[in-house]
Amino acid sequence: MLSYRHGFHAGHHADVFKHIILTRLVLSLLNKEKPFFYLDTHSGAGRYNLQSAMARKNREYESGIIRLFGAEGVSDEVKAYLQIVRAENPSNDLQFYPGSPRFVRHFLRPKDRMVLCELHPNEVENLAAEFAGDRQVKVEHLDGYAGIKALLPPAERRGLVHIDPAFELQDERHRLLDALKEGYRRWPTGIFAIWYPLQDRFVTDDFLRRLKRSGIQKILLAEFSILNPDETLRLIGSGMVIINPPWQLDEQLRGLLPWLWKQLAVEGQGGYKVEWLVGE
Ligand SMILES: C[S@@+](CC[C@H](N)C(=O)[O-])C[C@H]1O[C@@H](n2cnc3c(N)ncnc32)[C@H](O)[C@@H]1O
C-alpha cells in the first residue's frame, strides 16, 4: 500500500537540491541539436499547491523554496531553476511548486519527449490532468522500475532517467539497485540521476557500497544537509548520484553547494560534499 504523498513535502530543502541538479542536467542535454528522452520513474503529482491543507500541515517549503524565491544575483543553474518556479507563479506570490516533471517540461523542445511513471492512483490522476492534451508527455500508471525495463533504451539514444522513490518500502534500495543495473545494461550511455534521503548513515553507506560494486562506471555523488545527524533519524538532507554526468558537473556542484548551504542550513548545521563514487 502506497501512503506517501509528495504534497506534504513539496518545496522543502531536498526538493530544492534535487531540482537544481535536475535543471542543470536537462540544460546540458539542450547543448546538442539531437532530440532527447526523459524518463521520470517516480513522478509524483507534477505540481503542488503550497497553500493547500496538505502542504500547510508541516509547511516544509519553509526549509527550502521560501528562502530562495526572491534571491537575486544567483549562479546560472540557480537562475534557470528559479525562473521555472517563478513562471509557475506569475503574480510573484509563491503558491505553486513544480515537481520534477514540470521542471523538465519547461525545457522540452518540440522534438524531445518524456514518459512519466507513477503508481499511486490519486497522484497518477493528478499527473494525467496536469499534462492532459500534451502530446510530448506520456503518463503511465506503472511501477517505475518496470518502466525502466520496458522503455530503455529509447530511440533517441540520449537523455536522462530520474529515479526518485519515496523509500517507503523495506526493500526499496534493493529494488532500485536491481532496476538501475538493468537500465544501465540496456542503456550504458544514458544519464541516470538517483535521489536518496540522508537519515540513517549506516543504511546510506550500505546502499552506496553496493552501488560502487555494481560494475556501473562514472558515478558522481553529491550530498547536501541542513541539519546535523542525531539519534531520531529525521531527514537531515539528501543525496543524488549521477551516472554519466555531463562534463564539469562536479566542478559546478562544488561551486553551487556552499552557496546553497549558506541559504538553507539551520544555524550552521549540516554540510555538503561532491565526490566520485566510481571515477571515469
Ligand atoms: C518523492 S515522490 C516523487 C517526487 C517527484 N519526482 C518530484 O521531484 O517532484 C515519489 C513518488 O513515487 C511514487 N511511487 C512509489 N513507488 C513507486 C513505484 N514503484 N513506481 C512508480 N511510482 C512510485 C509515489 O506515489 C510518489 O508519488
The span between the termini is: 40 Å
The CATH topology is Rossmann fold
**Reading side by side through the largest sheet, how are the strands ordered?**
5-4-1-6-7-9-8-10
Any idea how many domains? 1
Order of helices and strands: HEEHHHEHEHEHEHEHEEHE
Count of DSSP E strands?
10
Largest sheet: 8 strands, mixed
Helical residues, percent: 25-40%
CATH-scheme architecture: 3-Layer(aba) Sandwich
Provide an overview of this structure.
- The strands form two sheets. Strands 5-4-1-6-7-9-8-10 form an eight-stranded mixed sheet, sandwiched between helices. It has a two-stranded antiparallel ribbon with strand order 2-3.
- The protein has 280 residues and is α/β, with parallel strands linked by helices.
- It has a single domain, classed as Vaccinia Virus protein VP39 (Rossmann fold), CATH 3.40.50.
- Strand 6, helix 8 and strand 7 form a beta-alpha-beta unit.
- It has ten helices and ten strands.
- Helix 1 packs across helix 4.
- The mean pLDDT is 96.
- It starts with 12 loop residues before the first helix and ends with a strand.
